[in-house]
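Quick question, first post here. What does this chain look like in 3D?
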Amino acid sequence: MAVGLVSLVAGFATFDGREDRGSARAPRFISQSEGGTALLWRETFDDTENYQHSVILIEPSSKSAPLPPGVDAWPKPGQAVLSPGLRAALSDEGGANRYGQVVGSISATGLEVPGERLAYVRPAPGVLDKSSMLKVAGFGTGTRASMGDALRVQTLSSYTFTVLGLTMLPAVAMIVVAARSGSAGRDRRTALLRALGAGRRARAMVNMGEAVAPIALGALLAAGLVAASMTADWQVPLVDFTVAVTDLRRWAPILFAAVLAAVVSVLLAVIVLHRADTRSRSTRPHTTDRRSKWAMWLCPLMLLLAVRGPDLAGGSQAPPLVFLTIYVLGVLGTLATLPAVIASAVVGVGRLLVRYGNRTGRPGALIAGRWNMTHPGVTTRMIASIVIAIGLITQVQLWSSRLGDPILEAQATHARIGDSILTVDALGQVNVDGFTSALPEGVHLLQLTTSQQGKPILRGNCAALEALAASCHTPDTNHARGDARLREFAAWYGVDDGRITLAQLDDNPRRKDTPESLVLIGDDSGDLPVAQLKGIAYQHLLGPQVIPLGGEWLQGAKDLRNPATWVLLMGFTGVSFLALAAALNNLGDFLRFSRSLAPLAVLTSRRSLFFSTASWTVLVPLAAAGLIGAFVAVWLGTPLTQPGGGASLSWPVLTATLLTVEALALLFWWWGSTTAATTALRWRPTAD
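> Answer (accepted):
Ran it through. Tokens below.
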């Protein structure tokens, strides 16, 4: 509970810090007709490993112009100031001087978060085009600037609901299980205190006194983690995000109050959930089998609806609302009716264990089989909770990874031709000649224009046309068959017939219009040196964007992965909580049940009886729950992962979840077996 509450408060602290720093660096724009311009400003974009970031082109009117927050001094023309995160990312790609000579770093006061990628670039004199830039009087407004991470980060409400649904709810389930573990003895004690005349306050004080030691230990551990997080910026596990220590320090009282709130919530749960059981008890064995027959038969129908229903309705071509309605109803119906099937399976396995124990003379299997037949609800709750938890987190991951058709097409294009063809766009006037002369050997430039009939035309010199296997002496030839790069380009930029016109570059100075876009190709179909070409582009063009075909959609897919990773982190934590709670619940019931086996163990002098019984009542069901959960999750996800579904299953996350459940199965089997065996050694006959 402390982990969930502290995560929630830390999210509020981070968003609060983002808002303050984002507002402080927001430019105060003025109209073109107003005077008093302090600097010229224009935001453009670039990417590293398809992760998009902001590049701010900036030109001060004088040396006394106000500096952006986090920048100590104005860079000279052709120089840049980078954030530490961007500098490291550019270095990994082959050089940090892509935007010009790096002369400084943006400090934490100018970044929304420590890992933000941001650059302030002062264009070189020959590149600067003042007409394409905006006038700014200074920095600092009442609203957060729409630049940098602000363009891609999810909202605070999305983060809040993610924490509440995937972390807090499992934590609540864990609290309930913890408060009721071994509750039979506590309930008898509460009933005795009530019979002796103890009031509610006295009974509550007794229950609190029993729980205060473990709660205090957990609170100290949580408080220690909070205190440690305030010593320096720290990286969130499994997520490429760094938490600013300054934000946590400002919210320190509320963070520690969250730990205190967790303590209070657990204490209240202990008081409320420990009650006097006044029901009459019989020594006669009775079954708790309350299986729902209709739900058991409805489950396979719901599974069929989820897996095959969307295909029958048209699959990926079906209207989105129809696809969503059928699929969601099928998934929720399957998960809701699955416990009934599991309960029947538990009873059936119990019968098989009884037969196996009788036939082979194995008491552990016989006892476990009788236990499953008379109390199937205990094992069912454990298996069902884990299966449903794995199914839900897998659904969340699948929907988070679902991509639109343009993104899928861009990924398919990139898989076929990679970075063998690039498009270049820039702001203002384009210095084509200077850029062309600076290109490395083996890289050719073509200019994309549009004819009066609205058809795209690629114009290039003879070397560029020959690199595309086209004739240099036949201008205006429709050609999109021979070269794979050209076919892909025609698919993205061509007209309805899927063809594109190639033409020799016209040397007539009267026809040298500014091209709509520049296209780079190589002598062969291999990948171009993207990092090097981006550096050359920034030396000769204003705010250039050098991207492969469909690069905008590839960057969009990268942006979608970040919130999906957060969801997986929260969901994995929640599934771990639920698995731990289910295992603890089953372990508590097993330990209570094992007390009745103590006389048998003493008579047989066989401690292995407890290990054998626990293997069938704890180890096998918990291990099977993980396998069943993974199988059901993959099966239910097939409509989303098949061609046209747009989603991809994260096998590393599913594998990590499965291994966690299997590790818990081994841990609780050993714990329950050794505890039961030790308890049996201390058993002595009493007049009970």
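The longest helix spans residues 551-594.
The chain is about 55% helix and 10% strand.
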